[in-house]
Amino acid sequence: MTLERRMNRHLESLFAGAQDTLEHRELKEEIRSNLAARIDDYLAEGMSEEQAFQTAIQHMDGMEQFMSDYRHVKRVPYWTALWQSTLIYSLVAWIITIPTRVMLGGAALNNLLLIISLIVGAAYVVYSMSNRENGSGSSDTEKTTRVRVLVLKQWQRRAWWLWAAVVLVLWGTQAALRFGSNIWFDRPIQVNGPYQLAVILFAFALPLLSILIPLVVHRAYRIVSKYEVSDNI
């Protein structure tokens, strides 16, 4: 395979998830010229074509990420959709925890989720009204903001991994506190009645509510393509 074809393949994989916009085409050509210049320099230094290509790729990775991961999205629709999703997630969590009010600590948790839902709802209303007033008679809805997609994607993965780690740690803590002595002294674990079972299940299910955070981050990443602004208009 020729160097030209290898460069083309590398650039296609780099921009695989991007829209075919004028900005992205210009970025691709700039990266291509820089990559070709580096390869020529390494070849002049006596490297083989394979060594020159791999070395150039390694030195270009940082620039490629910086130049290719920005996306322009419609500011108001993007943030409105993200506020809506956050409000829906918090309301669903509040509704799910309503039955837990009969248990110790369940009422406090449900009230906390209700407060969070009210705060998010109030913020969403204020944001919508302020943009409606500022955007009346203007093209405010067409204003854009830049989003670093690759960074957001990394944070999405980190949020899910961090959430899973936190849940496992909290589950381990609960298991140690509730069943540690039974396991240590090789005694059977006993559950006295359905209420105690419900309390145990509630204690283990409580950490799962922290899923709201990775869900919001995941949503922020997923809707970028929906509101991305194309130059091909």
Multimeric state: single chain
Distance from N terminus to C terminus (CA atoms, Å) equals: 36 Å
Strand order of the largest sheet: 1-2
Helical/strand content category: mainly alpha
The secondary-structure element order is: HHHEHHEHHH
* DSSP strand count: 2
How does this model look, in words?
The chain crosses the membrane at residues 76-96, 108-127, 160-177, 197-217. It comes from Paenibacillus cucumis. This is DUF1129 domain-containing protein. The chain is mainly alpha-helical and 233 residues long. The protein has 2 domains: 3-68, no CATH class; 72-222, no CATH class. 72% of the residues lie in helices and 4% in strands. The protein contains 8 helices and 2 strands, in the order αααβααβααα. The protein has helices at 3-14, 22-44, 49-68, 75-96, 106-135, 149-184, 193-205, 212-222; strands at residues 70-74, 144-148. The protein has a two-stranded antiparallel ribbon with strand order 1-2. The radius of gyration is 26 Å and the shape is flat. 10% of the residues are buried. The mean pLDDT is 82.
In summary, what is this structure?
This protein is mainly alpha-helical.
Question: Which helices and strands appear, and what pairs or packs with what?
Answer:
Elements: H1 3-14, H2 22-44, H3 49-68, E1 70-74, H4 75-96, H5 106-135, E2 144-148, H6 149-184, H7 193-205, H8 212-222
Antiparallel strand pairs: 1-2
Helix pairs in contact: 2-3, 4-5, 4-8, 6-8
